[in-house]
Amino acid sequence: MEESPLYSADLAPAPESRCTWDLWSYAAIWVGMAVCIPTWLLASYMIRNGLDWTEALAIIFAGNLIVTVPMILNGRAGARYRLPFAVLGRAAFGVAGVHGPAMVRALVACGWFGVQTWIGGLAIHAIGCAVGGVPVEAGLTPGKFAGFALSLSLNLIIIWRGIDSIRRVEIWAAPLLLAVGLCLMAWGTAAGGGFSPVLRQGGQLDQPTAAYAADGGVVLAPLRDSRGVVKARQFRIGPPETMDDAPWRSLAAAGERLPAAELPDAPLAVQFRRDDEISTAIDVGASNPSAPRFAIWLFWTTAMVGFWATMSISIADITRYSRSQAAQVTGQLLGLPGAMLFYSFISIFVTSAALTGLDRVLIAEDAPWDPVTLLAQFDNPALVVAAQLALLVATITTNVAANVIAPANVFANLLPRRIDFRLGGIITGIAGVLIAPWWLFDRISDLLVFISGLLGPVLGVMLADYYWVRRGVVSVRDLFDPAGAYAYWRGVNPAAMLALGLGVAAALVGYFVPMLEWLYTGSWFSGCLVAFAVYGLCAPGDRANVATHS
């Protein structure tokens, strides 16, 4: 087996001496991966889109409980055979066919790696601004890209030190981000007027800041403070190109409704002011009716499942080091759903508090939706530096654990004799830069639904192959044999490719056909179920290989 072109030390079954991960190792690494800034962003975006805090938490818990099930099921193969996803996937897709779905999973992880590295760069930039006594500028600046370069360097150093260093650092780094979150909760309780009032602030986002009414007038609804009084004192409105020439006008304490007769017949923008604080100029939009509640819940549940869709496919990369099946099962159950729920609650609470507690935030569009931006709003440099350092360390460790291990193994699987784990990790870092994470940063929720449509079918094929077709038995020797049981047709399993193609089509067709939009909204579910059923029905002949080759 060692002479096979498909073999390398990094892809071979993990030796007994390296299978040291116990229940607490898995619980800790999941707490570390769940307690991250993208978790904060996703939860705060739910509030931004008008969900109340109980709806958001219910969706978060349900989504993570759902994705934990395939995480455990897929993890069993890794714990039993001590092999990574890129090798186990050869049984379902073929020794050559596995490269297709594996590369999709790897590129998605590269994108996430880039986003997390960009977030770390923002923290470094905020630290530099706090030390230098200069404000953090909006938009893309050279300083932010310099911070990104430093963040990338720190990530690559940890990658170079190998898989064991990731586990050791993750165990102690996660509490840092939890501590920052709890301190922000204490601030939010004080700044927002109490615990219960803060949780009611999400209702402010049910209506747009500036929208046209049915009679052609404009309704203005900037943010209110904890007493229910609008924080802005003045506003100005006019065509975007002449906004600087528009006069400032007093704003009523309850908002404003402008009749159509007072407005120019042109596209309009509006801006708000309080003392020296001036909001971003925003376009006046149509007051569109909200989507059906079920559609909103399905969208966000799919996004939440899609958040960990990559890990549910490649979880064997971690469970291969487990001491036992019980360790990986119990550890994941304890670590993932609870940690996501708890940290998401912190995110929702602090985001809601920022709507009322920060006087300089006059409209929802300017609210700090992530902790890096929020911390940059404080005036105490020492506080900003300490908190941003904690965010930086926790973000880097989460990034390496969640977004480097799997793609590094996938790239190593392309050329086992030439690419090892370290080089695969470096390739991941380079790809993460080329994907332009500063562009992806504000498009996370929509991106997750699309990703779900690609990765759900891969998971469906893998689960059907391992549990339905092979009854949990594979031949390790044949996984490394180019002419063995998993060579199929020129190294590709036609049944798997058919199931994968139909699963992706079922998941994404709703993006192009409006009447089937519900399939796209629930893309992970539709793609996974179709691929699972098609593969299970089209691959009956492979059951013979279980007895013959395993």
Number of strands: 9
Secondary-structure class: mainly alpha
The number of helical runs is 23
Task: Work out the strand percent.
Answer: 5-15%
Assign an overall shape.
globular
How many angstroms separate the termini? 15 Å
Unreliable stretches covering 5 or more consecutive residues: 546-550
The Cα radius of gyration reads: 25 Å
What's the overall average pLDDT, rounded? 85
**Main β sheet profile:** 5 strands, antiparallel
Helix content: 55-70%
What does this structure look like?
- With 550 residues, the chain is mainly alpha-helical.
- The protein contains 23 helices and 9 strands.
- Strands 3, 4, 6, 7 and 8 form a 5-stranded antiparallel beta sheet that branches. It has a 4-stranded mixed beta sheet with strand order 5-2-1-9, with no helix packed on it.
- The two termini are 15 Å apart.
- The C terminus is likely disordered.
What keywords describe this structure?
single chain; 550 residues; mainly alpha; five-stranded antiparallel sheet; four-stranded mixed sheet; 9 strands; 62% helix; 5% strand; globular; disordered C terminus
Which SSEs are present, and which pair or pack?
Elements: H1 23-34, H2 37-48, H3 53-81, H4 85-93, H5 99-132, H6 142-161, H7 163-191, H8 195-199, E1 210-212, E2 218-220, E3 234-238, E4 249-250, E5 256-258, E6 269-274, E7 277-278, E8 282-283, E9 285-286, H9 293-307, H10 309-314, H11 316-319, H12 325-357, H13 371-375, H14 381-403, H15 405-414, H16 421-434, H17 437-440, H18 444-469, H19 476-479, H20 494-512, H21 517-521, H22 523-538, H23 543-549
Parallel strand pairs: 1-9
Antiparallel strand pairs: 1-2, 2-5, 3-4, 3-6, 6-7, 6-8
Helix pairs in contact: 1-7, 1-12, 1-14, 2-12, 3-9, 3-12, 3-18, 4-18, 5-6, 5-14, 5-15, 5-16, 5-18, 6-14, 6-16, 7-12, 7-14, 9-18, 15-16, 18-20, 18-22, 20-22
